[in-house]
Amino acid sequence: MQDFGSAFGLAFELIVGFDTDLLAIVGLSLRVTFAALLISCLIGLPIGAALAVSSFPGRGALVVTFNTMMGLPPVVVGLLAYMMLSNAGPLGVLKLLYTPGAMVIAQTILVTPIVVALSRQMIEDLNKEYAEQFRSLVVPFPTAMAALLWDARFALATVALAGFGRAIAEVGAVMIVGGNINHVTRVMTTAIALETSKGDLALALALGIILLIIAMAVNAAVQGINAKARRNAYA
């Protein structure tokens, strides 16, 4: 077990020296997270917009369902994804278990409800301002959805960043379906858990510092987007 002082020193050496193992773990984490976020936005934003501007039987139940799914336990998602992707599961033929693809699927399941629920609320509030105008102009449903998505683009960017924060910090689900295999499926969160249990605090601290930097960058991006949106609103 390393003492804390030397562990911090070695951690900064790994970061400043661009350690290859460190870079590989960070790179895989970012690739998996961005892939899951992209898929989640492609699925979630249209669903959120549709729920915001439409009215149909069962809509309330869907809204409640997606709001509830925002708090899905990651280990449960990992277990369900494992069962689907295992050899005995319906998607076992794809041979995705213990691959980055499996981790993308698990993160997508976790992030999509967040994107749907938050975008639905934002677009629904915005739709209240445009609903009467849309009706008077007989704007088609797809056109209204597209217009609202475009007008809410800055707010929706913060939704995407919230999803990114959820995905990048995930550990339970990705460990179950990824297996934390070195140079294959080892990401920042799973590596931190493993290295801490081994007593290798240097690498764990280095990854933790990078994870904190990414979190700060996400928060700064959210504030910047919100500030730009306010400037545009008053322009």
Automatic annotation (TrEMBL):
<feature type="transmembrane region" description="Helical">
    <location>
        <begin position="154"/>
        <end position="181"/>
    </location>
</feature>
<dbReference type="GO" id="GO:0055085">
    <property type="term" value="P:transmembrane transport"/>
</dbReference>
<feature type="transmembrane region" description="Helical">
    <location>
        <begin position="201"/>
        <end position="222"/>
    </location>
</feature>
<dbReference type="InterPro" id="IPR000515">
    <property type="entry name" value="MetI-like"/>
</dbReference>
<dbReference type="GO" id="GO:0005886">
    <property type="term" value="C:plasma membrane"/>
</dbReference>
<keyword id="KW-0472">Membrane</keyword>
<dbReference type="InterPro" id="IPR049783">
    <property type="entry name" value="ABC_perm_TupB-like"/>
</dbReference>
<feature type="domain" description="ABC transmembrane type-1">
    <location>
        <begin position="26"/>
        <end position="222"/>
    </location>
</feature>
<feature type="transmembrane region" description="Helical">
    <location>
        <begin position="60"/>
        <end position="85"/>
    </location>
</feature>
<feature type="transmembrane region" description="Helical">
    <location>
        <begin position="97"/>
        <end position="118"/>
    </location>
</feature>
<feature type="transmembrane region" description="Helical">
    <location>
        <begin position="34"/>
        <end position="53"/>
    </location>
</feature>
<keyword id="KW-0812">Transmembrane</keyword>
<keyword id="KW-1133">Transmembrane helix</keyword>
<dbReference type="InterPro" id="IPR035906">
    <property type="entry name" value="MetI-like_sf"/>
</dbReference>
<protein>
    <submittedName>
        <fullName>ABC transporter permease subunit</fullName>
    </submittedName>
</protein>
<feature type="transmembrane region" description="Helical">
    <location>
        <begin position="7"/>
        <end position="28"/>
    </location>
</feature>
